[in-house]
Specification:
single chain; 296 residues; mainly alpha; globular
Length: 296
């Protein structure tokens, strides 16, 4: 095998960082440019080239390089926020199943079936959203909330996701599907790990279901999101709203009974104002950043 063939094969492996559609349209052109610029007898890309190709491919895969109108940024950002909300809820449900298996007591079959049904609803909703089926995702999320798989308080992550999806379904009048990259799901396990440690440190001051995702996501939105991608602040605002609702409203789920240990249904706390203010700031930053990038 010639040196040029080996180098081309390794370049092609790096170019897989780009989306498939991009590679089909421009991959051969970029590969030819890279081979023409390479020194004779080279058999592998150097470190600088490799890092650059992977970084640019990742930016293209996340859609960071494409110019968008502010309305398109909002549409994609809200879908990303819904995707992470659904993914976090599925991951939390899986953790609950794991806790059941680690308990010494006998596991009720009804609990296992209930959690399993919740995971099934969540995975189906995420797949539909990634495929651009917004209406289907809205229906599945609504069924997930209404079905007897949720006990205790109303799942405000899902309620927030459902409200956003319903608004998108009504506002989106374009015939084409708006796909959401499944790459954004990589955020879910990261924020779950960081959020678990955060929840242990604060001693349950926040509700675990919402605190698992929020700290890391807020940090991400206020740093890289503000300077790199305007979709991130808007997406994290969805999580902030869910946090605010979790801290403020204590309403039983449809099959959770009439009250929750005597807790008032509405409890205005300092967190309510803080989360509300953060949501407004994030939405404002994302919108202004989107408008600025649209003019560049």
């Amino acid at each position: 095998m010639s040196d040029e063939t080996v180098l081309a094969r390794r370049y092609r492996a790096l170019l897989r960082a780009y989306p498939k559609a991009w590679r089909a349209e421009r991959g051969d052109e970029l590969l030819g440019t890279l081979l023409d610029a390479a020194e004779p007898d080279r058999r592998r890309p150097n470190l600088r080239e490799s890092v650059s190709i992977l970084a640019q491919g990742t930016r293209e895969r996340f859609g960071l390089r494409r110019r968008r109108a502010p309305g398109e940024v909002w549409s994609e950002a809200l879908r990303i926020g819904v995707l992470v909300l659904l993914g976090q809820t599925v991951a939390s449900t899986l953790l609950s199943i794991l806790e059941l298996f680690t308990m010494d007591a006998v596991m009720p079959v009804a609990n296992i079936a209930r959690y399993g049904a919740g995971v099934a609803f969540g995975i189906a909703a995420m797949v539909a959203l990634v495929l651009g089926q917004t209406v289907v995702t809205t229906v599945l999320t609504g069924l997930w909330i209404a079905a007897p798989v949720m006990h205790g308080e109303l799942p405000w992550q899902l309620v927030t996701a459902f409200a956003v999806l319903a608004g998108l379904s009504l506002a989106d009048r374009t015939p084409g599907r708006r796909r959401t990259s499944a790459v954004w799901l990589v955020v879910v396990p990261l924020v779950l790990l960081l959020g678990f440690g955060f929840n242990q440190m604060v001693g349950g001051y926040f509700y675990p279901a919402s605190a698992l995702l929020y700290p890391f996501a807020l940090l991400l939105a206020l740093t890289a999101g503000v300077t790199v991608d305007p979709r991130l602040p808007i997406a994290v605002a969805c999580l902030t709203v869910a946090m605010m609702l979790n801290a403020t409203l204590h309403i039983p789920s449809l099959f959770g009974g009439g009250s929750i240990n005597g807790v008032s249904p509405v409890e205005l706390r300092p967190q309510t104002a803080v989360f509300g203010a953060i949501a407004v700031v994030l939405l404002t930053i994302g919108h202004l950043r989107a408008r600025r990038l649209a003019r560049i």
